[in-house]
Amino acid sequence: MKKTLLIGGLIAAVGVTGLFAGVPAKADGALTITSWGGAYQESQRKAYYEPYSKEKGVKITEEEYDGELGKLKAMKDANSVTWDVIDVDSAHALAGCDEGLLAKLDYSKIGDKDKFLPGTALDCAVGTIAYSTIFAFNADVYKDNQPSSLMDLFDTKKYPGKRALLKKPFGNLEWALIADGVPAADVYKTLETPEGVDRAFKKLDTIKKDVVWWEAGAQPPELLANGEVVMTSAWNGRIGNAIKEGKNFKIVWDYQEFDWDFWVIPEGAKNTEGAYDFIKFASDPKNMSQQSKYIAYAPTHKDAIALVDPKIAPTLPTFPDNMKTAIATDLQFWADNNEELTKRFNAWLAQ
Amino acid sequence: MAVADTFPRETGSNIPLKVKLARAERGRKLKALGLVLPLFLFVVITFLGPLVMMVFKSVQNEETFGRLNRTSEALAGWDGADVPEEAAFAALAADLKDAQEQRTAGEIAKRINYEFAGAQSKFKSIARKVTTMATGPYKETFVAADKVWGDPRLWRAIKGASGRFTSYYWLSAVDLRLGADGIEKAPADQSVFLDVYGRTFWIAGLVTMFTLLLGFPVAYLLATQPPSRANLLMIFVMLPFWTSLLVRTTAWFVLLRTEGPLNDLADLILGMRFDMIFTRFGTILAMTHIQLPFTLLPIFSVMKTIPASHVRAARSLGAGPFEAFWKVYFPQTVPGIAAGCLLTFILSLGYYITPALVGGPKDQMVSYYVSYYMNNIINFGQASALGATLLVITMVLYWAYNKLVGIDKMKLG
User: Which residue from A122, A125, A185 is spatially nearest to A328, judged by alpha carbons?
Assistant: First the structure.
């Protein structure tokens, strides 16, 4: 009896150490692709993952995230990066490259660098879509006299009801200043000064008690649909897809915040060659032009733009009418000030 | 069996009995150790190891240590009052040239930026610039590129970050910072964490209190009913306990929504809707529901051991019903209350998903910020310091609790 117990204990000990011995190796050629979930990842699945798997016989494992590169850093520190390709926004593309989390890209394995729109072929990242942060409202609530300008998002008298905003200072401070009368061209000059930041927070103060904060891209259409809020900031494609599904939402393009999403390969990825092959496939104009069918984001490859169905064009952020007052976020400003402004934002939220 | 085998049978040998006994005991001890070893290893590998690593992360300059050696040396004798001499600039330039080559300049820039907002872009652009320069003078070039290089505050931040250890994360975790004349309070708009700790303990305390108020009578009912009925009632207590925490939290999310069933009912009866989702009320309600069995079960099992005859004896000796309960029954349940409340309080301190789903921005607890710094800002040092501070405060509270209640008096049944 003693002996059996002892042996049992030893087996258990071996079992425990075995647990940490290592992650089982991936099947040859399989790819793990991480993206932003919801309707966006769905569009990538239809446009890229499924056709690629079918054509090349490669198994694609999908993961979802909300832009948290902290996970990637933890994986890199532990020397076991399990992601092969990631979809990131521009802030993360730049920061991840600077901090050595992302591999420098070899464009000879992807395609002609000059064929991408200016600013979308970076050292560590190659553009895949143009998206924008807009605000949308529930047209069942506002039947006539609908919101049409950014001022209306901040006008709780004319448009009462809760609104949802991204739970970050990024983007919100810019909108607050513009709504307070700062010309779009001077927004970052104003935010560089302490008075400018105070002014932005003061403007946000006026709607604070009516704001619900969202963190994942799939939340805004849900909050609008279940009546939790009457208007919300959102990534335009998410609202576009909800409209396609029959929701009575409307997008306001005024002062849309224009940005890119990129494909990147993490430093230390296990299947770099496979990753390049996938990115090459997804950057092919013919394949890239497919994604707009499934979500209202615009391609970054010059040849792909011509292939997009003209019927879809007015729903894309790049459509001239939608671009009239568009602002581009200043990534340098946010790289410098994100930490401090986020802390201040959290302190402000807790007040 | 074990005793018979190992006890010495003959007394004729010249080895003293004491030694023989010790030998026999040693074998048994080793076997006992073999049984405990798996658990011990498990705890060391999965708990103590990461804990020690976490504490190290919160005091180390991982991003900069070893990468600013020359600068660190050049700044060793600097008094911190004026702009340093050319030698320091040259040393930093040399360090940055190496960093640029090894792709570590971005990490260094990010680390300095924690303590000096705006340094990130200045570092990156100067790092690019120095790679094109073969020789100095560097001081002029730096200051000409941006006047921030003439700010002693930036140089103090560089000096602070170039050593092996830093107090920055721990100070920042309690809303302090290192100023020109030692430790000072961080400005109000940068002070978040003390408030967050206060909130965390307040919420955990309220939840503990509510679970006790609700759980005590139920535990009493369960303990005094005949077994057949008590078992049925027990299932009602245990059923939610067996359901995943995430499922229960999501259920509350649906129930509490502005357009949810509870508000539909309120609208029907009272003609108005209440703010319940994304509020403190919702957070405490959901957490109380989830934690209820943890407080209830220890109290219940202690109550089961209290003979009914005690209260009867008190009553027959002339005590009123309340007196008999309060003076005879209640004191015997205290060990169970102590155990249940401590369990709930400590578990509540670490809540993350429930406040994140049903709470508003003012209801997020320490774990939320740990995750935020880990995932979004990628500042592992700050996340570690926050977690470690929570651990320290909890241990101090546990110590105080032990002094007041006495941990040996605690009973789980």
Answer: A185
Assess: ipTM above 0.90: no
Among A326, A185, A165, A339, which Cα is nearest to A253's? Answer: A326
- Packed helices B366-375 and B193-224: angle between N→C axes, nearest 10 degrees: 130
Looking at the structure, do residues B302 and B366 belong to the same domain, yes or no?
yes
State how beta strands A125-138 and A298-299 pair: antiparallel
Architecture of domain A31-130+260-321: 3-Layer(aba) Sandwich (3.40)
pLDDT tens digits, one per residue of A124-162? 999 999 999 999 999 999 988 999 999 999 999 999 999
Question: Domains in chain B: how many in total?
Answer: 3
* B392: CATH: 1.10.3720.10
Tell me the two tokens of residue A294: 């499934």
Site of tokens 């040399």: B94
* CA dist., res. A336 & res. B131, Å (int): 22
Establish if A20 touches chain B: CB-CB under 8 angstroms: yes
Judge: B120–A228 Cβ closer than 8 Å, yes or no.
no
Q: Over the stretch A84-116, which tens digit does the pLDDT of each residue have?
A: 999 999 989 988 998 899 999 999 999 999 999
Which domain does B241 fall in, by range?
Answer: 193-409
Contact A98 B278 (CB under 8 A): no
Grouped pLDDT means (10 residues each) for chain B, 413 residues: 50 76 88 92 93 92 91 89 90 92 90 90 88 85 91 91 92 90 89 94 97 96 91 89 91 92 93 91 96 94 93 93 94 92 94 93 94 90 95 90 78 68
- Give the start-end residues of each E strand in B277-406: none
- From A314's Cα to the closest Cα of chain B, the distance in A is 33
Which tokens belong to B134? Answer: 């073969």
| Cβ atoms of residues B139 and B147 within 8 Å | no
> Which residue type does B247 have?
V
3-class SS at A87?
strand
Contact B2, A1 (CB under 8 A): no
Of A100, A332, A339, the CB nearest to B103: A100
Chain A: give the shortest CA distance to residue B362, in Å.
5
Per residue, the 3-state secondary structure of B231-283, as one string, reads HHHHHHHHHHHCCCHHHHHHHHHHHHCCCCHHHHHHHHHHCCCCCCCCCHHHH
- Which of B2, B258, B360 has its CB closest to that of A227? B258
Phi and psi, residue A31, nearest 5°: -120, 140
B24 and B116: one domain? no
Residue B58 domain flag:
no
Q: A137 - beta bridge partners?
A: A231, A250
CB contact under 8 A, A99 and B45: no
Q: Are residues B311 and B376 in the same domain?
A: yes
| Sign of the alpha-carbon dihedral angle for A24, A29, A30, A34 | positive
Which residues, numbered 110 to 129 in chain B, qualify as contacts with chain A under a Cβ-Cβ cut-off of 8 Å? 110, 113-114, 117-121, 124
The beta-carbon neighbor of A350 closest among B195, B375, B377 is: B195
Residues B15, B100, single domain; the answer is no
Residue B183 lies in a domain: no
Please check whether residue B174 lies inside any domain of the structure.
no
Of the candidates B189, B47, B239, the one whose C-alpha atom is nearest the C-alpha of residue A340 is B189
Please tell me which of the candidates A228, A335, A348 has its beta carbon nearest to residue B121: A335
Query: CA B123 to CA B127: how far, in whole Å?
Result: 6
Are B234 and B154 members of one domain? no
CB-based contact B361 A213, cutoff 8 Å: yes
A132-258+324-350 folds as D-Maltodextrin-Binding Protein; domain 2 (3.40.190)
Kindly state whether residue B243 falls inside one of the protein's structural domains. yes
Cβ–Cβ contact A194 with B under 8 A: no
CA distances from B106 to A54, A279, B121, B274, B372 (A): 40, 26, 9, 49, 21
Nearest Cα to Cα of residue B188 among A343, A192, A197: A343
Q: Is B380 in contact with A338 (Cβ distance < 8 A)?
A: no
CA distance B235 to B395: 34
